[in-house]
Amino acid sequence: MPCTGRIATPGLPAPAAPPEPTVNIFQAESLAAEPSPGPPAPDAPRDTWSGKHEFLLSCLGYCVGLGNVWRFPYLCYRNGGGVFLIPYFIMLLLAGLPLFLLELSLGQYGAAGPIAVWKCCPLLKGIGVGMLLVSSLVSLYYAVILAWTFYYLGTSFQSPLPWSCDAPRNKPLCQNESGNVTQFNPSETFWNEQVLGVTRSSGLGDPGPAQWPLALCLLAAWIVVFLCMLKGIRSSGKVVYFTATFPYLVLLILLIRGATLEGSIDGVRFYLSSDWSKLQSAQVWSDAASQIFYSLGIGFGGLLSMASYNKFDNNVIRDTLVIAVGNCCTSFFAGFAIFSVLGHMARTKRVPVGNVADSGPGLAFVAYPEALALLPGSAFWSILFFLMLFTLGIDTLFGNIEGILTAILDELPALRVGKRRPALLGALCGAFYLLGLLLVTQGGVFWFTLIDTYSTGFGLIIITLFMCLGIAFCYGVNQFCQDIVDMICRRPPWCSHALGYFKVCWVFFTPCLLLFTLIYTFLDVSSAPLRYGAYEYPAWGRSLGVCMGVLTCLQIPLWAVVALCRESGTLSDRLRKTTQPLRSWRTATARDAAENVIDVPFTITLTGTDFASSYES
């Protein structure tokens, strides 16, 4: 704090009790250069990451999710095996890395969440609101996956495993098996009848009662989320040291164990078999773009929120390369661990690998558990696998909830004070739990599939497309690049060259690829009816799903109209004002500059000559 200077005036009577001046010579120079008042101080200081590794591990855990394990390997073998890596890495270079850098840079420079960060261009505030809605829908059903994982983790402590042929209730079913003749195997029967109870529901309009074991597991999942995020990034940043690294250890163990199994090479060969003709299919390129898009967590607001807690001078380009490349390499590595074990199961059952391979929940809760049940010490391998799935899922849920919390706290900063933030977190977790009870009913998997399909469909792509176009053409791509340069002033020479490449992508390549993916998504939605197994969704169900996507998209024009109505003048004047940054933008720069101000004690001694000269003037 600045100190008070004492004035000594020998030979002259002291003035009558003048107010003691408080002087800070550094701040005085700053005020003289910039007379405009700054934004009001927030109600509570904004947290920052305790260390560099916490941010990297949090982002890596957020990006490396369940899709890396249960979706990428399936897409790889379905789309030409090793050939699929060509469009995959092309999409990573032209769309994944530029969008990832855009979100991290925007959050770090603005030091704000998905909504408040659009002070840089108030016309596009609806993008942040749309991100908030998408994150809420994803969090709703992602917690249900954790509930399924909890259930399987608990039952894995039984011996024999309840979905294996050694279980007493499954012996009659296993004795009737003859190749592919039977409709269900023990693992699929356990999943559909005991876990989901879906066989007792007729469809979307018949949810039935809740599966109370799943309801308790869902409650446990949200309690874990609440406890881990109770102190914000200070607590979740410590948890990720385990949850972000443990999956790599388990994948390595599963890969080593799978490599020793008979038939594992058949699974790996099936995983990487090359079919060059697949490159001519637009479906392959669309699958590559969507996998890059979703596996990096772009457009949900989680990346933007986590980057907002960074220090201003963090090298965001380096972090982008480390996290994005690490995420994609994890997907490729996970395929070996998955297909080596599936190859052994196919050899044991004497069927082609393609007959046992699946994607999504079918792989994680049916095919792979069945394969693990064939191994000696199956309970141990099952516990290890489902503990890995839980850590993969919980990190992604951390990022989504952090994005929602940050958006709310930025708009209502008074909630950061005292016990208000834990109360808000508890209210959010409680609300999500109550809403998620619909998804753990006997017909809940139908609702789960509906939300999963449409919440991250065309609506999310449109939000990301407008985010890219808004930064490139409304805020200005040159200004945005300058912002990045301001953040990493001590940058190596390669960063400058990389920034030129990203500028071209933001202006041309990335929007074009997003537009291509959007068009293909519309064609896919309109041509193929939504199904879960043999059940085809009714028209009203598909319409409800489309409304989810439309609701997120409508936020963009809705909040643009609100921003225009708040301004005065002609339409062109209003457009000009709403595309210019607010005065409270760039608070991160001002904050970090303020941290460099040094307050020093000093003493000023005035003589009689000083007073005499002032009297004469």
UniProtKB/TrEMBL annotation:
Give the location in the cell: Membrane
Q: Which InterPro entries does this one have?
A: Na/ntran_symport (IPR000175), SNS_sf (IPR037272)
The record's section on SUPFAM superfamilies has:
SNF-like
Its domain of life? Answer: Eukaryota
Provide the topology term for how it sits in the membrane.
Answer: Multi-pass membrane protein
Q: Where are the transmembrane segments?
A: 55-73, 85-106, 127-153, 210-230, 239-259, 292-309, 321-342, 379-401, 422-448, 454-477, 498-523, 543-565
User: Any keyword rRNA-binding?
Assistant: no
User: What keywords is this UniProt entry annotated with?
Assistant: Membrane, Symport, Transmembrane, Transmembrane helix, Transport
**Family from the record:** Belongs to the sodium:neurotransmitter symporter (SNF) (TC 2.A.22) family.
Q: What is the protein's given name? A: Transporter
Q: Which organism is it from?
A: Apteryx mantelli
